[in-house]
Write a structure and sequence with these properties.
heterodimer; B: alpha/beta; 35-stranded mixed beta sheet; 7 helices; 35 strands; flat
């Protein structure tokens, strides 16, 4: 089938050009050598990430689990501000404000700061109502102009915060009663600059996409983040269901308003500044995941762009840093490169196919062995990780959905690659930032912790 | 078989083999047997009193009437629950609690509830929950599955609790008790010498008798030289009120530090030193006699506090914690948390709040305190 296809393609190319092409890339030509070596490099990086996946998964299955701050249930709780950035969130803002007013935290030490960022719906009125009823706790901040984006909103509002600890929840999240205490507890460690809790999809049953995203989230938090915490690596601050030590963040430059991923950006600047990010796997909070593929594609493209921005900014700074330990550095660098691996993989596939159809398969057996080994073990790494996460969560039947993740990965692969390639285009480098919000489904607004 | 048929067969087999994993996936996507959102950990479940509160709910639902009646008419009652579990509600001044058979076997399989105070003989096993509306006093070497009391609880020497114990008053555990599971008291807990424990919670937890000689009030701590960040060898960064120190660090006696301290290596705080901030040490940390830390003390490995040390905030160690004689963690009205893999405590220590010893804790007997008590 494939040889026929290749022949058909080759037939479509004028013969004189084909002869020239084969003459150019014949055996031993420098271009072929370069392609082979490029493929080797790509395989090397794929194997590095493979080892990373297995290390994290095996650590979660058999390693010592670290939850150093989970036990803090009594303490002289510090003053904390909970920021809720909101841009046209009238459907959900009331719910999260109500929930935050009922959390188990000394009221006199709690500030709730809804940040109304240029909303043109009923968000402002709802916030105003809560502020009027709870003037001692709800201290809203409203911006009518300025740079768009969550980072800019947070940066501007941060100037009006008078506590050293700041937690951030997106408006469509529903924190449980004990979550503020749980996310504040790691800050008793003076080395902790940021803390991250676990995000759990609430609208899982909506459709196949939400079920697949539920599995992906489980892998990302239950295995990846917790393994990094266990191994003293680089857990990532995710921008919501988490918080920062304001003085530490200010010391390293505050929120980066130019970043599409201000959370990842903050993680790396804190890391370079000698601060740690703590991950609390048992500090869970429900979220709504995208329910349609277009929204999912937009979301992952935004993540990829933001992450790649961070990589460009901090890759060499991290390489040169003397303050960051070797393993932390390695993990940090690999984390920076995760979204780059999609276009790299695509290039690898293209090279492998091209070389195969050109009849160049030296050194033969080793390549075949490598490819088959990777196909049987390497491709399985991510599935193994997600299955492990589901098992750790006590889920049983949802593991059966794993084969469908193949489609999710393909969509992510091409979306992320497109985002990465787009970023290299000159006309996209200085693109304007905008709020990219997850579509809300009111059917699920209301799930909360008991 | 013709070549074409063989190819077709091989092709079909390959397609079937490739699609095989999708069959259970398709079935699950249609049936949605496991499509509910993940159940998150509820805050109430990690509450130290969780089981006690659930047991009280159970009593309120099933046996509250019997308890009230026994209190009113002074007569004991007994019966069985729907699952066949036998129960006894003893009146305040009722007859002998245990049957002859139970006394002979030195074990009771019944739920034992007392409408007033409850006194239990020694060397018995109580394999169901025990509840007293009033005070509860147990004899020595008893084994309790779980205990709930509204009045003070006194456990005889070498008694054991297996799952949980909660009192709305004070708990006094005799020498050599083993308190497994969650143990909480609304007023206070006092442990006798040699007690073992896992998780304790009370406004004040006293470990053994106070040792006036060892306890330091902390007033004199930090009376020596005030150290600035630049005075610390290995200091690599100072910002946001935190000083980061590479390598090991030794702080001189009675030094005063007015910022948070993060040490990448080992740390030794000299006798009588005072830190008006929090301390983090990624490796082992040792505090000399009478050291005061106003904030929290966090250790990546083991923490060893000398006699008379005081901390205001949580003490968290990923390894073990050793408290010398007369140490105090937290303060009256300022409860906090001590958490470690193992906790070894010398007599005379007080912790206000919660103690978690994940692999067990132990209060040393007076004759064991030589090294730990006077570090």
């Amino acid at each position: 089938m494939f040889p026929d296809l290749a022949i058909a393609i080759l037939d479509a190319i004028p013969r004189e050009r084909l002869v020239t092409l084969f003459a150019l890339i014949g055996r031993g030509h420098w271009l072929v050598t370069a392609m082979i070596w490029a493929l080797y490099v790509i395989i090397f990086f794929v194997c590095v990430y493979l080892i990373r996946h297995y290390s994290f998964t095996l650590n979660r299955l058999y390693g010592r689990q670290r939850h150093p701050y989970l036990d803090v249930d009594e303490a002289e709780w510090p003053e904390v501000t909970v920021m809720v950035p909101a841009h046209n969130e009238q459907a959900v803002i009331g719910q999260i404000l109500q929930v935050l007013l009922e959390v188990d935290y000394p009221r006199e030490r709690l500030r709730v700061m809804p940040v109304n960022d240029r909303s043109d719906d009923g968000t402002a009125a709802i916030i105003e109502e809560f502020a009027r009823a709870n003037p001692d706790v709800v201290m809203p901040y409203e911006r009518r102009e300025g740079k768009a984006g969550k980072a800019a909103a947070l940066a501007e509002a941060m100037a009006h915060v008078d506590t050293d600890l700041v937690l951030v929840f997106d408006a469509d999240y529903v924190p449980g009663r004990g979550l503020v205490k749980q996310l504040t507890a790691p800050f008793f460690d003076p080395e902790v600059g940021a803390v991250m809790g676990r995000v759990v999809p609430a609208n899982v049953e909506e459709n196949l996409l939400t079920r697949l995203l539920d599995l992906e989230r489980a892998g990302g938090y239950q295995v990846d983040q917790q393994a990094r915490m266990n191994l003293h690596l680089v857990p990532q601050y995710g921008g919501t269901v988490g918080g920062v030590r304001r003085s530490a963040l200010m010391e390293v430059g505050g929120w980066n308003t130019d970043s599409l991923a201000e959370d990842t950006d903050a993680t790396y600047r804190l890391l370079l500044g000698g601060w740690k990010t703590a991950y609390q796997n048992r500090s869970e909070c429900y979220e709504l995941v995208p329910e349609g593929w277009p929204a999912r594609v937009r979301q992952i493209k935004r993540w990829a762009k933001g992450h790649n921005q961070t990589m460009v900014r901090y890759f060499w700074k991290l390489v040169r840093s003397r303050r960051v330990g070797r393993l932390e550095k390695l993990d940090g660098l690999l984390l920076l490169g995760v979204y780059l691996m999609s276009p790299v993989m695509l290039v690898g596939w293209a090279l492998a196919i091209l070389l195969w159809f050109l009849g160049i398969n030296k050194p033969g057996l080793i390549i075949i062995l490598a490819v088959t080994s990777y196909s049987s073990i390497g491709n399985f790494a991510t599935f193994f990780e997600l299955a492990t996460a589901a098992r750790l969560d006590g889920s049983r039947d949802r593991i059966r959905l794993l084969p469908f993740l193949l489609f999710g990965f393909l969509v992510s692969l091409f979306s992320v690659s497109r985002a990465a390639v787009g970023q290299t285009m000159p006309w996209q480098r200085n693109g304007r930032l905008y709020w990219s919000k997850t579509d809300h489904n009111s059917r699920h607004n209301g799930r909360r912790h008991e | 078989m013709s070549p074409a048929l063989a190819i077709a067969f091989f092709f079909a087999l390959t397609v079937f083999w490739s699609l095989l994993p999708f069959l259970p996936a398709w079935a699950e996507s249609r049936r949605r047997r496991d499509a509910a959102p993940l159940r998150v950990v509820r805050r109430a479940e990690v509450d130290v009193r969780f089981f006690a509160l659930r047991f009280r709910e159970f009593l309120d639902q099933h046996l509250a009437g019997e308890l009230a009646a026994a209190k009113a008419d002074g007569r004991s009652r007994e019966g069985r629950l729907e699952d066949g579990t036998a129960w006894l509600v003893a009146a305040a001044d009722g007859p002998a609690l245990l049957t002859a058979e139970e006394s002979g076997e030195r074990a009771s399989q019944r739920l034992l509830l007392a409408a007033g105070d409850l006194t239990l003989p020694g060397e018995h096993s109580f394999l169901q929950e025990v509840h007293a509306v009033g005070a509860l006093a147990g004899g020595p070497r008893n084994i309790y599955r779980a205990v709930l009391a509204d009045g003070p609880v006194a456990l005889g020497d070498e008694s054991t609790t297996l799952r949980w114990l909660h009192t709305e008053d004070a708990l006094a555990a005799g020498a050599g008790c083993a308190l497994y599971g969650r143990v909480s008291a609304a007023a206070s807990i006092r442990l006798g010498a040699g007690c073992r424990f896992e998780r304790l919670h009370a406004p004040a937890i006293a470990f053994g008798e106070a040792d006036a000689g060892a306890e330091a009030n902390g007033d004199g701590a930090g009376g020596g030289r005030e150290l600035a960040p630049r005075d610390l060898p290995g200091q690599v960064d100072f910002g946001a009120g935190r000083c980061l120190v590479e390598g090991d660090l030794e702080i001189e006696d009675e030094a005063l530090i007015d910022f948070d301290l993060v040490v990448v290596g080992r740390l030794r705080l000299g006798r009588g030193a005072r830190v008006n901030g929090s301390v983090k040490c990624r490796k082992d940390a040792e505090l000399g006699h009478g050291v005061v830390i106003a904030g929290s003390l966090v250790g990546g490995r083991h923490l060893r506090l000398g006699a008379g040390c005081r901390t205001g905030g949580p003490v968290l160690a990923e390894g073990d914690v050793v408290l010398g004689a007369g140490c105090r963690v937290g303060g009256a009205g300022r409860p906090t948390t001590l958490s470690a893999r193992r906790v070894t405590v010398s007599p005379g220590c007080t912790v206000h709040g919660t103690v978690w010893a994940h692999e067990g804790g132990r209060l040393l007997a007076a004759d064991e305190t030589g090294e730990e008590g006077h570090a």
